[in-house]
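Lab meeting prep.
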Amino acid sequence: MRRTIPFIEPIDTGVFILQCPNDKEKKMTVELQNQRVRVKPSYKHKEPAFDVYYQTDGSIVEAACPITLDDRNLIKSLNEQLETEMKKELESLIKKAQTEFQSDFLELGKVFMNKYPVEWKEIGPRWASIFPTVKVSIHIDGEIKDTVLLKEPTKSGGGVR
């Protein structure tokens, strides 16, 4: 399956698998919608850095456990789990770019160049050696907004368990 790279491609929808809060053996599927990514470069003490802001809404579309939006603590727990898992995924993507591939396929250099063209003239020629050490901070805001009318666990036909 081809995955979208959120830094450089528009994102339509996607899915994420979460654990049921009261039974970690069971899973639920969350459809991600209205995904937005904003990359904010900074330049302090002659060092580039980036803050990545990722926002999304979610709908629970399949669940192996009963779920309702009425339980605020349950939804808060699911939102935290969603944000944690999404952050791990983005951190893994950045780590691969910086260490495994040592390639700025996320195009962070372009973002920096657009915001700091004068500074880019100084660091641009050395970007290949600078990029692997650049600090990238991830900020996630994920909110499950509906359960697509689910109240009871869905019947699995070989899907999520």
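Slide two material, second protein:
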Amino acid sequence: MNNSRVYLNYLLFGALTTFVNMLTYGVLTTKALDVDYQVATTIAWILSVITAFITNKKYVFKSNLGGKRTFLSEFFYFVFFD
């Protein structure tokens, strides 16, 4: 794998994750939805972590190993030990 390509993808999908976080928070805290900022922050964080995990796994590191159990195990380690 080309290292510069990995770094570029990591940067790109990191920016996407940040965008997902900011957009989610922004939408949830609009006057129309008026979600409490703490709840909005929590939801935005959860969606961001899911986005980061999936994009890093699939597009940055191109990891397609294992089944559902492996996927859940990797997700657990990503969330709690990364």
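Talking points for slide two:
The helical segments are 3-28, 37-60, 68-81.
Residues 9 and 60 are 5 Å apart (CA to CA).
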